[in-house]
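Trying the structure run again after the queue cleared.
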Amino acid sequence: MPESKRLVLRRLAIDTYHENVAYLHRDCPLYRTEGFQALSKLEVRRGKRSILAVLNVVDDARIIEPQELGLSEQAFEQLGLNEGDRVAIGHAEPPRSMEAVRRKLSGERLNQQEYRDIAQDIAANRYSKIEMAAFIVTSGQTGLDRDEVLYLTRAMAETGERLQWDEDLVADKHCIGGIPGNRTSMIVVPIVAAHGLLIPKTSSRAITSPAGTADTMEVLANVEIGPARMREIVHAHRGCLAWGGTARLAPVDDILIAVERPLAMDSQGQLVASILAKKIAAGSTHLIIDIPVGPTAKVRHMRDALRLRKLFEYVGDRIGIHVEVVITDGRQPIGRGIGPVLETRDVMQVLTNDPKAPADLREKSLRLAGRIIEFDPDVRGGQGYSIARDILESGRAAMRMQQIIESQGRAPDAPRPGRLHFNVLASRSGTVIGIDNKNLARIARLAGAPMDKGAGVDIRRKLGDQVNVGDVLYRVHAEFPPDLRFARELCTQNPGYEIGQAEDMTMYSYGL
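Done. C-alpha coordinates:
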Protein backbone atom coordinates (compact mmCIF):
# COMPACT_ATOMS: atom_id res chain seq x y z
CA MET A 1 0.00 0.00 0.00
CA PRO A 2 1.40 3.49 -0.80
CA GLU A 3 2.73 5.50 2.13
CA SER A 4 0.08 8.12 1.40
CA LYS A 5 -2.51 5.53 2.34
CA ARG A 6 -0.86 4.80 5.68
CA LEU A 7 -1.14 6.58 9.03
CA VAL A 8 1.41 7.13 11.78
CA LEU A 9 0.61 5.04 14.84
CA ARG A 10 0.25 6.88 18.14
CA ARG A 11 -0.37 5.45 21.59
CA LEU A 12 -2.99 7.39 23.55
CA ALA A 13 -3.01 6.85 27.31
CA ILE A 14 -6.73 6.07 27.47
CA ASP A 15 -8.12 3.09 29.35
CA THR A 16 -11.17 1.90 27.41
CA TYR A 17 -11.72 -1.16 29.64
CA HIS A 18 -11.91 -4.31 27.53
CA GLU A 19 -12.68 -2.46 24.28
CA ASN A 20 -10.31 -1.66 21.42
CA VAL A 21 -10.79 1.97 20.38
CA ALA A 22 -9.12 3.83 17.50
CA TYR A 23 -9.02 7.64 17.11
CA LEU A 24 -8.98 9.57 13.82
CA HIS A 25 -8.98 13.33 13.28
CA ARG A 26 -12.01 14.49 11.31
CA ASP A 27 -9.67 16.08 8.75
CA CYS A 28 -7.77 12.85 8.14
CA PRO A 29 -7.83 12.23 4.36
CA LEU A 30 -8.64 8.54 4.84
CA TYR A 31 -11.55 9.39 7.13
CA ARG A 32 -13.08 11.44 4.32
CA THR A 33 -12.24 9.26 1.31
CA GLU A 34 -13.01 5.87 2.86
CA GLY A 35 -16.38 6.93 4.31
CA PHE A 36 -15.65 6.04 7.96
CA GLN A 37 -18.11 7.14 10.64
CA ALA A 38 -17.90 7.41 14.41
CA LEU A 39 -18.52 4.05 16.13
CA SER A 40 -17.86 2.10 12.93
CA LYS A 41 -15.36 -0.74 13.20
CA LEU A 42 -11.89 -0.55 11.69
CA GLU A 43 -9.28 -3.13 10.91
CA VAL A 44 -5.80 -1.80 11.73
CA ARG A 45 -2.98 -3.75 10.12
CA ARG A 46 0.70 -3.86 9.34
CA GLY A 47 2.07 -6.97 7.73
CA LYS A 48 0.64 -10.02 9.50
CA ARG A 49 -0.37 -8.02 12.58
CA SER A 50 -3.93 -6.72 12.79
CA ILE A 51 -6.61 -5.79 15.29
CA LEU A 52 -10.23 -4.65 15.15
CA ALA A 53 -11.27 -1.43 16.89
CA VAL A 54 -14.24 0.91 17.28
CA LEU A 55 -13.67 4.34 15.74
CA ASN A 56 -13.90 7.59 17.70
CA VAL A 57 -13.63 10.84 15.71
CA VAL A 58 -11.55 13.73 17.13
CA ASP A 59 -11.74 17.45 16.26
CA ASP A 60 -8.76 18.57 18.37
CA ALA A 61 -5.30 18.20 16.78
CA ARG A 62 -3.76 18.33 20.25
CA ILE A 63 -5.25 14.85 20.80
CA ILE A 64 -4.57 13.36 17.38
CA GLU A 65 -3.28 14.96 14.16
CA PRO A 66 -4.82 14.35 10.71
CA GLN A 67 -1.97 12.05 9.59
CA GLU A 68 -2.07 9.94 12.75
CA LEU A 69 -4.06 6.96 14.06
CA GLY A 70 -4.46 6.88 17.82
CA LEU A 71 -5.04 3.66 19.73
CA SER A 72 -6.29 3.12 23.27
CA GLU A 73 -4.02 1.33 25.74
CA GLN A 74 -5.56 -2.11 25.19
CA ALA A 75 -5.61 -1.80 21.40
CA PHE A 76 -1.99 -0.63 21.26
CA GLU A 77 -0.84 -3.55 23.43
CA GLN A 78 -2.74 -6.05 21.29
CA LEU A 79 -1.32 -4.74 18.02
CA GLY A 80 2.21 -5.04 19.37
CA LEU A 81 3.87 -2.33 17.24
CA ASN A 82 5.83 0.79 18.12
CA GLU A 83 4.75 4.41 18.12
CA GLY A 84 5.67 5.97 14.81
CA ASP A 85 5.13 2.80 12.78
CA ARG A 86 2.95 3.27 9.72
CA VAL A 87 -0.28 1.25 9.61
CA ALA A 88 -3.12 0.73 7.17
CA ILE A 89 -6.79 0.91 8.08
CA GLY A 90 -9.90 -0.45 6.45
CA HIS A 91 -13.51 -1.26 7.13
CA ALA A 92 -13.87 -4.33 9.36
CA GLU A 93 -16.11 -7.13 8.20
CA PRO A 94 -19.21 -7.35 10.45
CA PRO A 95 -19.14 -10.39 12.75
CA ARG A 96 -21.03 -13.22 11.09
CA SER A 97 -22.27 -14.47 14.45
CA MET A 98 -24.46 -11.37 14.83
CA GLU A 99 -27.04 -13.21 12.73
CA ALA A 100 -27.35 -15.74 15.56
CA VAL A 101 -27.79 -12.89 18.06
CA ARG A 102 -30.61 -11.49 15.93
CA ARG A 103 -32.27 -14.90 15.91
CA LYS A 104 -31.94 -15.04 19.69
CA LEU A 105 -33.60 -11.63 19.86
CA SER A 106 -36.54 -13.25 18.07
CA GLY A 107 -36.75 -15.88 20.77
CA GLU A 108 -35.04 -18.73 18.95
CA ARG A 109 -32.85 -21.33 20.65
CA LEU A 110 -29.17 -21.39 19.59
CA ASN A 111 -26.92 -24.43 19.25
CA GLN A 112 -23.39 -25.18 20.46
CA GLN A 113 -21.64 -23.95 17.30
CA GLU A 114 -23.55 -20.68 17.32
CA TYR A 115 -22.51 -19.92 20.91
CA ARG A 116 -18.94 -20.91 20.00
CA ASP A 117 -18.99 -18.47 17.06
CA ILE A 118 -20.36 -15.66 19.24
CA ALA A 119 -17.73 -16.23 21.94
CA GLN A 120 -14.88 -16.35 19.43
CA ASP A 121 -16.02 -13.15 17.71
CA ILE A 122 -16.27 -11.35 21.08
CA ALA A 123 -12.81 -12.57 22.10
CA ALA A 124 -11.42 -11.30 18.78
CA ASN A 125 -12.93 -7.83 19.47
CA ARG A 126 -15.29 -8.11 16.48
CA TYR A 127 -18.20 -6.97 18.66
CA SER A 128 -18.71 -3.40 19.79
CA LYS A 129 -20.07 -2.83 23.27
CA ILE A 130 -23.46 -2.04 21.74
CA GLU A 131 -23.50 -5.43 19.99
CA MET A 132 -22.37 -7.19 23.17
CA ALA A 133 -25.11 -5.41 25.08
CA ALA A 134 -27.63 -6.76 22.56
CA PHE A 135 -26.40 -10.31 23.21
CA ILE A 136 -26.47 -9.86 26.99
CA VAL A 137 -29.91 -8.27 27.07
CA THR A 138 -31.52 -10.86 24.80
CA SER A 139 -29.92 -13.71 26.78
CA GLY A 140 -31.34 -12.24 29.97
CA GLN A 141 -34.77 -11.31 28.66
CA THR A 142 -35.60 -14.27 26.41
CA GLY A 143 -33.66 -16.60 28.72
CA LEU A 144 -31.26 -19.47 28.19
CA ASP A 145 -32.49 -23.01 28.66
CA ARG A 146 -30.19 -25.34 30.58
CA ASP A 147 -28.55 -26.72 27.44
CA GLU A 148 -27.88 -23.20 26.15
CA VAL A 149 -26.20 -22.41 29.46
CA LEU A 150 -24.04 -25.50 28.92
CA TYR A 151 -23.19 -24.39 25.36
CA LEU A 152 -22.29 -20.86 26.51
CA THR A 153 -20.14 -22.24 29.34
CA ARG A 154 -18.13 -24.41 26.98
CA ALA A 155 -17.82 -21.62 24.41
CA MET A 156 -16.46 -19.11 26.93
CA ALA A 157 -13.97 -21.61 28.39
CA GLU A 158 -12.58 -22.29 24.91
CA THR A 159 -11.60 -18.64 24.34
CA GLY A 160 -8.57 -18.67 26.65
CA GLU A 161 -5.93 -20.76 28.34
CA ARG A 162 -6.65 -23.88 30.37
CA LEU A 163 -4.51 -24.75 33.39
CA GLN A 164 -3.44 -28.37 33.79
CA TRP A 165 -2.44 -29.71 37.21
CA ASP A 166 -1.87 -33.42 36.49
CA GLU A 167 -3.83 -34.47 39.57
CA ASP A 168 -7.16 -36.30 39.88
CA LEU A 169 -8.58 -33.91 42.47
CA VAL A 170 -8.28 -30.14 42.06
CA ALA A 171 -10.52 -28.35 44.55
CA ASP A 172 -12.06 -24.90 44.28
CA LYS A 173 -14.77 -22.75 45.83
CA HIS A 174 -16.76 -19.78 44.61
CA CYS A 175 -19.36 -17.46 46.08
CA ILE A 176 -21.85 -15.95 43.63
CA GLY A 177 -21.35 -12.59 45.39
CA GLY A 178 -23.55 -9.85 46.76
CA ILE A 179 -22.46 -10.13 50.42
CA PRO A 180 -19.87 -7.58 51.63
CA GLY A 181 -16.95 -8.87 53.68
CA ASN A 182 -17.52 -12.49 52.69
CA ARG A 183 -13.79 -13.19 52.42
CA THR A 184 -13.92 -16.92 53.18
CA SER A 185 -11.57 -17.98 50.35
CA MET A 186 -8.56 -16.50 52.13
CA ILE A 187 -9.26 -18.79 55.07
CA VAL A 188 -10.49 -21.83 53.18
CA VAL A 189 -7.47 -22.04 50.85
CA PRO A 190 -4.76 -22.33 53.54
CA ILE A 191 -6.89 -24.79 55.56
CA VAL A 192 -7.52 -27.06 52.57
CA ALA A 193 -3.92 -26.73 51.34
CA ALA A 194 -2.61 -27.63 54.81
CA HIS A 195 -4.78 -30.75 54.68
CA GLY A 196 -3.01 -31.68 51.44
CA LEU A 197 -5.64 -31.15 48.74
CA LEU A 198 -4.68 -29.05 45.71
CA ILE A 199 -6.59 -25.75 45.68
CA PRO A 200 -5.20 -23.21 43.15
CA LYS A 201 -7.59 -20.31 43.77
CA THR A 202 -7.84 -17.80 40.96
CA SER A 203 -10.06 -14.90 41.96
CA SER A 204 -11.47 -11.73 40.47
CA ARG A 205 -10.99 -8.08 41.28
CA ALA A 206 -13.97 -5.99 42.31
CA ILE A 207 -16.15 -4.50 39.58
CA THR A 208 -19.06 -3.02 41.54
CA SER A 209 -18.26 -4.39 45.02
CA PRO A 210 -15.92 -2.78 47.61
CA ALA A 211 -13.41 -5.65 47.28
CA GLY A 212 -12.81 -8.88 45.42
CA THR A 213 -10.68 -11.66 46.85
CA ALA A 214 -7.78 -10.54 44.62
CA ASP A 215 -8.05 -6.95 45.94
CA THR A 216 -7.98 -8.14 49.53
CA MET A 217 -5.16 -10.66 49.06
CA GLU A 218 -3.16 -7.89 47.35
CA VAL A 219 -2.94 -6.11 50.71
CA LEU A 220 -0.74 -9.02 51.83
CA ALA A 221 0.94 -10.32 48.65
CA ASN A 222 1.41 -9.98 44.92
CA VAL A 223 -1.56 -11.51 43.08
CA GLU A 224 -0.46 -10.91 39.47
CA ILE A 225 1.21 -14.27 38.92
CA GLY A 226 1.73 -15.90 35.53
CA PRO A 227 0.74 -19.53 34.92
CA ALA A 228 4.30 -20.91 35.19
CA ARG A 229 4.99 -19.25 38.55
CA MET A 230 1.50 -20.16 39.77
CA ARG A 231 2.21 -23.81 39.00
CA GLU A 232 5.46 -23.67 41.03
CA ILE A 233 3.71 -22.11 44.04
CA VAL A 234 0.79 -24.53 43.95
CA HIS A 235 2.97 -27.61 43.69
CA ALA A 236 5.12 -26.34 46.57
CA HIS A 237 2.34 -25.29 48.94
CA ARG A 238 -0.79 -27.01 47.49
CA GLY A 239 -2.54 -23.68 47.01
CA CYS A 240 -2.41 -20.04 45.95
CA LEU A 241 -4.60 -16.92 45.92
CA ALA A 242 -4.02 -15.17 42.62
CA TRP A 243 -5.79 -12.80 40.23
CA GLY A 244 -7.33 -14.81 37.39
CA GLY A 245 -6.74 -12.09 34.77
CA THR A 246 -3.01 -12.79 34.59
CA ALA A 247 -3.64 -16.41 33.60
CA ARG A 248 -6.04 -15.36 30.78
CA LEU A 249 -8.79 -17.75 31.87
CA ALA A 250 -12.00 -17.52 29.78
CA PRO A 251 -11.21 -13.89 28.76
CA VAL A 252 -14.50 -13.44 26.88
CA ASP A 253 -16.22 -13.65 30.27
CA ASP A 254 -14.27 -10.61 31.51
CA ILE A 255 -15.25 -8.72 28.36
CA LEU A 256 -18.95 -9.51 28.84
CA ILE A 257 -18.82 -8.60 32.55
CA ALA A 258 -17.53 -5.14 31.62
CA VAL A 259 -20.80 -4.60 29.70
CA GLU A 260 -23.11 -6.44 32.13
CA ARG A 261 -22.27 -4.35 35.18
CA PRO A 262 -23.41 -0.93 33.86
CA LEU A 263 -26.60 -2.63 32.66
CA ALA A 264 -27.09 -4.16 36.15
CA MET A 265 -27.92 -7.43 34.43
CA ASP A 266 -26.91 -10.75 35.96
CA SER A 267 -29.29 -13.43 34.73
CA GLN A 268 -29.01 -16.91 36.23
CA GLY A 269 -27.95 -18.50 32.96
CA GLN A 270 -25.18 -16.00 32.36
CA LEU A 271 -24.11 -16.21 36.01
CA VAL A 272 -23.71 -19.99 35.88
CA ALA A 273 -21.90 -19.91 32.53
CA SER A 274 -19.55 -17.17 33.75
CA ILE A 275 -18.54 -19.01 36.92
CA LEU A 276 -18.22 -22.49 35.47
CA ALA A 277 -16.31 -21.35 32.37
CA LYS A 278 -13.67 -19.88 34.68
CA LYS A 279 -13.54 -23.13 36.68
CA ILE A 280 -13.08 -25.26 33.54
CA ALA A 281 -10.22 -22.98 32.49
CA ALA A 282 -8.67 -23.13 35.97
CA GLY A 283 -8.54 -26.92 35.80
CA SER A 284 -10.93 -27.50 38.70
CA THR A 285 -12.42 -30.98 39.19
CA HIS A 286 -14.34 -30.49 42.48
CA LEU A 287 -16.16 -27.26 43.29
CA ILE A 288 -18.17 -25.82 46.19
CA ILE A 289 -20.58 -23.01 45.22
CA ASP A 290 -21.77 -20.66 47.98
CA ILE A 291 -25.20 -19.10 47.31
CA PRO A 292 -26.10 -16.54 50.02
CA VAL A 293 -29.83 -15.81 50.27
CA GLY A 294 -31.30 -12.73 51.88
CA PRO A 295 -33.51 -9.67 51.24
CA THR A 296 -30.59 -7.53 49.96
CA ALA A 297 -28.42 -10.37 48.60
CA LYS A 298 -28.03 -11.23 44.91
CA VAL A 299 -30.48 -14.14 45.44
CA ARG A 300 -33.43 -13.03 47.56
CA HIS A 301 -35.65 -16.11 47.77
CA MET A 302 -35.00 -19.74 48.61
CA ARG A 303 -36.91 -20.95 45.55
CA ASP A 304 -34.48 -19.03 43.31
CA ALA A 305 -31.52 -20.50 45.16
CA LEU A 306 -32.84 -24.03 44.67
CA ARG A 307 -33.43 -23.39 40.96
CA LEU A 308 -29.89 -22.01 40.66
CA ARG A 309 -28.46 -25.02 42.50
CA LYS A 310 -30.09 -27.40 40.01
CA LEU A 311 -28.66 -25.44 37.09
CA PHE A 312 -25.14 -25.44 38.55
CA GLU A 313 -25.33 -29.19 39.15
CA TYR A 314 -26.72 -29.93 35.67
CA VAL A 315 -24.01 -27.97 33.83
CA GLY A 316 -21.24 -29.10 36.18
CA ASP A 317 -22.10 -32.74 35.60
CA ARG A 318 -21.87 -32.32 31.82
CA ILE A 319 -18.58 -30.42 31.80
CA GLY A 320 -16.91 -32.93 34.12
CA ILE A 321 -16.79 -30.87 37.33
CA HIS A 322 -18.23 -32.29 40.56
CA VAL A 323 -20.31 -29.39 41.87
CA GLU A 324 -21.85 -29.13 45.34
CA VAL A 325 -23.95 -26.07 46.19
CA VAL A 326 -24.20 -24.64 49.69
CA ILE A 327 -27.04 -22.22 50.47
CA THR A 328 -26.02 -19.77 53.20
CA ASP A 329 -27.45 -16.91 55.24
CA GLY A 330 -27.12 -13.70 53.23
CA ARG A 331 -29.07 -11.32 55.44
CA GLN A 332 -26.02 -9.26 56.43
CA PRO A 333 -22.30 -8.78 55.75
CA ILE A 334 -19.93 -11.53 56.88
CA GLY A 335 -17.22 -10.41 59.29
CA ARG A 336 -16.79 -6.82 60.41
CA GLY A 337 -14.75 -5.21 57.64
CA ILE A 338 -15.91 -4.08 54.19
CA GLY A 339 -12.95 -3.01 52.03
CA PRO A 340 -9.54 -4.62 51.38
CA VAL A 341 -7.58 -3.65 54.50
CA LEU A 342 -10.49 -4.14 56.90
CA GLU A 343 -11.32 -7.53 55.36
CA THR A 344 -7.64 -8.53 55.57
CA ARG A 345 -7.69 -7.74 59.29
CA ASP A 346 -10.69 -10.03 59.78
CA VAL A 347 -9.05 -12.85 57.79
CA MET A 348 -5.79 -12.69 59.70
CA GLN A 349 -7.63 -12.58 63.04
CA VAL A 350 -9.40 -15.82 62.11
CA LEU A 351 -6.23 -17.51 60.84
CA THR A 352 -4.24 -16.57 63.96
CA ASN A 353 -7.06 -17.61 66.33
CA ASP A 354 -7.34 -14.08 67.70
CA PRO A 355 -10.12 -13.88 70.34
CA LYS A 356 -11.38 -10.75 68.56
CA ALA A 357 -11.87 -12.63 65.26
CA PRO A 358 -15.41 -12.33 63.80
CA ALA A 359 -17.22 -15.54 64.73
CA ASP A 360 -19.46 -15.62 61.64
CA LEU A 361 -16.50 -15.44 59.23
CA ARG A 362 -14.67 -18.14 61.17
CA GLU A 363 -17.65 -20.48 61.32
CA LYS A 364 -18.64 -20.09 57.67
CA SER A 365 -15.05 -20.62 56.52
CA LEU A 366 -14.71 -23.77 58.61
CA ARG A 367 -17.90 -25.26 57.22
CA LEU A 368 -16.92 -24.50 53.62
CA ALA A 369 -13.40 -25.83 54.15
CA GLY A 370 -14.87 -28.93 55.79
CA ARG A 371 -17.07 -29.61 52.78
CA ILE A 372 -14.07 -29.36 50.47
CA ILE A 373 -11.95 -31.63 52.70
CA GLU A 374 -14.70 -34.24 52.39
CA PHE A 375 -13.89 -34.45 48.66
CA ASP A 376 -10.81 -36.37 49.88
CA PRO A 377 -11.68 -40.07 49.42
CA ASP A 378 -9.82 -40.85 52.66
CA VAL A 379 -12.16 -38.60 54.69
CA ARG A 380 -15.54 -39.91 55.77
CA GLY A 381 -18.63 -37.74 55.37
CA GLY A 382 -19.20 -35.53 58.39
CA GLN A 383 -15.52 -35.44 59.43
CA GLY A 384 -14.50 -32.45 57.33
CA TYR A 385 -15.54 -29.74 59.77
CA SER A 386 -13.57 -31.17 62.70
CA ILE A 387 -10.50 -31.67 60.49
CA ALA A 388 -10.72 -28.07 59.27
CA ARG A 389 -11.14 -26.79 62.83
CA ASP A 390 -8.11 -28.76 64.02
CA ILE A 391 -5.97 -27.38 61.18
CA LEU A 392 -7.05 -23.83 62.02
CA GLU A 393 -6.63 -24.13 65.80
CA SER A 394 -3.24 -25.84 65.51
CA GLY A 395 -1.80 -22.88 63.62
CA ARG A 396 -1.12 -24.94 60.47
CA ALA A 397 -3.50 -22.81 58.39
CA ALA A 398 -1.75 -19.58 59.46
CA MET A 399 1.63 -21.14 58.67
CA ARG A 400 0.46 -22.23 55.24
CA MET A 401 -0.93 -18.75 54.53
CA GLN A 402 2.45 -17.22 55.38
CA GLN A 403 4.18 -19.66 53.03
CA ILE A 404 1.79 -18.71 50.22
CA ILE A 405 2.31 -14.99 50.92
CA GLU A 406 6.10 -15.33 50.82
CA SER A 407 6.02 -17.38 47.62
CA GLN A 408 3.71 -14.96 45.83
CA GLY A 409 5.74 -12.00 47.10
CA ARG A 410 4.92 -10.22 50.35
CA ALA A 411 3.44 -6.74 49.96
CA PRO A 412 5.94 -4.10 51.14
CA ASP A 413 3.57 -1.88 53.13
CA ALA A 414 1.84 -2.76 56.38
CA PRO A 415 -1.95 -2.53 55.96
CA ARG A 416 -3.82 0.24 57.77
CA PRO A 417 -7.36 1.62 57.64
CA GLY A 418 -7.96 4.97 55.94
CA ARG A 419 -6.69 7.94 57.99
CA LEU A 420 -10.01 9.84 57.80
CA HIS A 421 -13.12 8.44 59.44
CA PHE A 422 -16.52 9.14 60.95
CA ASN A 423 -19.01 7.08 62.96
CA VAL A 424 -22.61 6.32 62.07
CA LEU A 425 -24.77 6.25 65.20
CA ALA A 426 -28.05 4.60 66.11
CA SER A 427 -30.91 7.08 65.87
CA ARG A 428 -33.14 5.07 68.23
CA SER A 429 -32.96 2.30 70.81
CA GLY A 430 -33.99 -1.26 70.02
CA THR A 431 -32.76 -4.33 68.12
CA VAL A 432 -30.94 -4.37 64.80
CA ILE A 433 -33.53 -6.16 62.63
CA GLY A 434 -32.21 -5.36 59.15
CA ILE A 435 -28.91 -4.54 57.42
CA ASP A 436 -28.83 -3.47 53.77
CA ASN A 437 -25.92 -5.27 52.08
CA LYS A 438 -26.14 -3.20 48.92
CA ASN A 439 -26.18 0.14 50.70
CA LEU A 440 -23.21 -0.67 52.94
CA ALA A 441 -21.27 -1.85 49.89
CA ARG A 442 -22.12 1.41 48.12
CA ILE A 443 -20.98 3.46 51.13
CA ALA A 444 -17.66 1.59 51.16
CA ARG A 445 -17.16 2.26 47.44
CA LEU A 446 -17.97 5.96 47.82
CA ALA A 447 -15.36 6.06 50.59
CA GLY A 448 -12.80 4.87 48.03
CA ALA A 449 -12.73 1.06 48.19
CA PRO A 450 -11.26 -0.92 46.52
CA MET A 451 -8.93 1.56 44.77
CA ASP A 452 -7.91 2.96 48.17
CA LYS A 453 -7.14 -0.23 50.04
CA GLY A 454 -7.73 1.30 53.50
CA ALA A 455 -11.15 2.73 52.66
CA GLY A 456 -14.33 0.98 53.71
CA VAL A 457 -16.80 0.27 56.49
CA ASP A 458 -15.97 -1.23 59.89
CA ILE A 459 -19.13 -2.78 61.34
CA ARG A 460 -19.75 -2.63 65.11
CA ARG A 461 -23.32 -4.02 65.31
CA LYS A 462 -24.88 -7.06 63.62
CA LEU A 463 -28.40 -8.50 63.33
CA GLY A 464 -30.01 -9.19 66.69
CA ASP A 465 -27.75 -6.81 68.64
CA GLN A 466 -29.36 -4.47 71.15
CA VAL A 467 -28.50 -0.79 70.67
CA ASN A 468 -29.20 2.47 72.46
CA VAL A 469 -29.51 5.92 70.91
CA GLY A 470 -26.01 7.15 70.05
CA ASP A 471 -24.34 3.73 69.91
CA VAL A 472 -21.88 3.30 67.02
CA LEU A 473 -23.34 1.11 64.26
CA TYR A 474 -20.24 1.31 62.04
CA ARG A 475 -17.24 3.48 61.23
CA VAL A 476 -16.45 4.69 57.69
CA HIS A 477 -12.78 5.04 56.67
CA ALA A 478 -11.43 7.04 53.72
CA GLU A 479 -8.10 8.41 52.49
CA PHE A 480 -9.34 11.64 50.90
CA PRO A 481 -11.79 14.34 52.11
CA PRO A 482 -14.06 14.28 49.00
CA ASP A 483 -14.56 10.52 49.33
CA LEU A 484 -15.34 10.91 53.02
CA ARG A 485 -17.90 13.60 52.18
CA PHE A 486 -19.60 11.47 49.50
CA ALA A 487 -19.85 8.53 51.90
CA ARG A 488 -21.19 10.73 54.69
CA GLU A 489 -23.92 12.14 52.44
CA LEU A 490 -25.12 8.64 51.55
CA CYS A 491 -25.05 7.58 55.21
CA THR A 492 -27.24 10.58 56.02
CA GLN A 493 -29.74 9.58 53.32
CA ASN A 494 -29.72 5.87 54.15
CA PRO A 495 -27.50 4.43 56.89
CA GLY A 496 -28.42 0.89 55.83
CA TYR A 497 -29.61 -0.23 59.28
CA GLU A 498 -33.14 -0.91 60.49
CA ILE A 499 -33.75 -0.82 64.23
CA GLY A 500 -36.97 -2.13 65.72
CA GLN A 501 -38.31 -4.83 68.03
CA ALA A 502 -36.67 -8.26 68.23
CA GLU A 503 -39.90 -10.03 67.29
CA ASP A 504 -39.97 -8.12 63.98
CA MET A 505 -36.74 -9.68 62.74
CA THR A 506 -37.31 -12.23 59.95
CA MET A 507 -35.52 -15.45 60.80
CA TYR A 508 -34.10 -17.83 58.18
CA SER A 509 -32.77 -21.31 58.78
CA TYR A 510 -30.31 -22.41 56.10
CA GLY A 511 -27.84 -24.93 57.44
CA LEU A 512 -24.63 -25.81 55.65
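Residues 171-247+263-408 form a domain with the Pyrimidine Nucleoside Phosphorylase; Chain A, domain 2 fold (CATH 3.40.1030.10). Worth checking whether this holds up in the mutant runs.
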